[in-house]
């Protein structure tokens, strides 16, 4: 699973909500087809890995997959039946903060139909709404 090798601060403060739309990573940069987030949220490293496995089955040996998000925000959890106080819990997993409009995954080297079915199946694995997008070519 994805996790940062080194971080500046071991535990981060949580924010209430993710505001605004994505102004970066909001277009297809590498592949022909992609999966774009329609809502904001946190995507854990387990969810990213689960979506990647689904896409890999569809791609087989023909195409290439790019993961455009990386989980770098540590999420802490306190042990069960721990009394109030006693400090913040230990880091349990990492999440990627995703704004609406962010491109999550990209695929190239396979047909449109198989790419669309792969992206739709991987969208089921994510906690946010996402849609299939494709790069439009301008022929003059």
Explain this structure.
The protein has 140 residues and is of the alpha+beta class. The protein has a domain at 33-78 and 90-134: Ribosomal protein L16/L10 (Aldehyde Oxidoreductase, domain 3, Alpha-Beta Complex), CATH 3.90.1170. The chain is 20% helix and 27% strand. It has helices at residues 45-59, 112-124; strands spanning 33-37, 41-44, 64-67, 73-77, 90-98, 103-108, 130-134. The strands form two sheets. A four-stranded antiparallel beta sheet has the order 3-6-1-7, with helices on one face. A three-stranded antiparallel beta sheet has the order 2-5-4. The protein is elongated. The termini are far apart.
Give short descriptive properties of this protein.
single chain, 7 strands, 4-stranded antiparallel β-sheet, Aldehyde Oxidoreductase, domain 3, alpha+beta, 2 helices
